């Protein structure tokens, strides 16, 4: 964000954010590949600004207005979210829509293996992650005004169509496993079962902030992919992440001794979720995990495309993430056969 844009933001905040006082400084977070995110500091406190990226964008992508709406709706629920302060849909201010929210202090954990934690600390944080996921799915969407936040109909059929279209629009080379995965998912769509809840769409430990001195979740972040849909998509997304290699790129748990580390097995995490929601079991869970791999592969392909087009928040990281697309497609096929 250049000096002229920062001045424009300060002027806009003076008019739209109660209690705001300048001067204003900004620092861009390394996270937020899709929507660039900045910490703002001023005499009245710390804020966070999240904006659409510049350039030509895929239709319906980078919907910061939806992020703002859902987090404002969740303000008085059991789901921890930052306080939403103001939304700017006027592109003339800094060139794209943005919103401003309170800055929430806390720990961001980008590695689910949590190398510096004790087994007891890891177990407590994973239990909290499970609890918050259930809280999201237990939100009364009618009461908070989100019943029209997503269209009706079969969620997986709708999502498969949407992300296949997005993937084709950003495709840079043929990935045969991705083509096979798309075909398999289309032939194995689960029947509509009536489950319709708020879904986060990208529920991972690195999209959460935790207390500095304990496992309590202070905020769930990055609601860009949220909608009204099927809750198992979020649960499968967690399990999908854990199938990846550990470390800063994969950020998974594959090959680790989870018992020794105090981390739950896939089965234990799913069983805990089912117990909290009063479910006996989840049949055909392999489909949901395969779908999660497919959708993440489509998202990463979009990140790669934006990097090539010069619109990525971090072009170098966009290229690294884009290289994972064939791997995600292959893992999706493995999950489909599990």
TrEMBL record:
Residues 26-249 form the Aminoglycoside phosphotransferase domain. Transmembrane segments: none annotated. One of its GO terms (molecular function) is transferase activity. Pfam families: APH (PF01636). InterPro entries: ACAD10-like, ACAD10_11_N, Aminoglycoside_PTrfase, Kinase-like_dom_sf. Keywords: Transferase. The keyword Transcription does not apply. This is Phosphotransferase family protein. The lineage of its organism: Bacteria, Pseudomonadati, Pseudomonadota, Alphaproteobacteria, Rhodobacterales.
């Amino acid at each position: 964000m250049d000096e002229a844009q920062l001045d424009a933001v300060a002027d806009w905040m003076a008019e739209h954010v109660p209690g705001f006082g300048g001067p204003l400084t900004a620092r861009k977070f390394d996270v937020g590949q899709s929507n660039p995110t900045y910490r703002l500091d001023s005499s009245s406190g710390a804020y966070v600004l999240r904006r659409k990226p510049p350039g030509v964008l895929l239709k319906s992508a980078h919907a910061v207005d939806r992020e703002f709406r859902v987090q404002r709706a969740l303000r008085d629920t059991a789901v921890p979210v930052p306080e939403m302060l103001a939304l700017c849909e006027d592109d003339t201010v800094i060139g794209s829509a943005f919103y401003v929210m309170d800055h929430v202090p806390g720990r961001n954990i980008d590695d689910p293996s949590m190398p510096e934690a004790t087994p007891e600390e890891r177990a407590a944080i994973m239990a909290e992650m499970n609890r918050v996921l259930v809280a999201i799915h237990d939100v009364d969407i009618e009461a908070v005004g989100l019943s029209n936040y997503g269209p009706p109909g079969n969620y997986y059929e709708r999502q498969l169509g949407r992300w296949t279209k997005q993937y084709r629009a950003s495709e840079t080379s043929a990935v045969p496993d991705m083509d096979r995965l798309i075909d398999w998912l289309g032939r194995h769509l689960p029947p509509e079962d009536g489950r319709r809840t708020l879904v986060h769409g990208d529920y991972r430990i690195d999209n959460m902030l935790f207390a500095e001195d304990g496992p309590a979740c202070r905020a769930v972040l990055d609601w860009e992919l949220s909608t009204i849909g099927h809750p198992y998509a979020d649960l499968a997304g967690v399990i999908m992440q854990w199938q990846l290699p550990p470390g800063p790129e994969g950020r998974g748990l594959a090959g680790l001794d989870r018992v020794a580390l105090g981390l739950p097995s896939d089965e234990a995490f799913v069983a805990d979720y089912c117990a909290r929601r009063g479910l006996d079991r989840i049949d055909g869970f392999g489909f949901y995990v395969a779908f999660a791999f497919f959708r993440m592969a489509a998202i990463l392909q979009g990140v790669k495309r934006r990097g090539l087009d010069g619109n990525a928040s971090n072009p170098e990281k966009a290229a690294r993430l884009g290289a994972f697309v064939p791997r995600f497609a292959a893992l999706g096929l493995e999950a489909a056969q599990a």
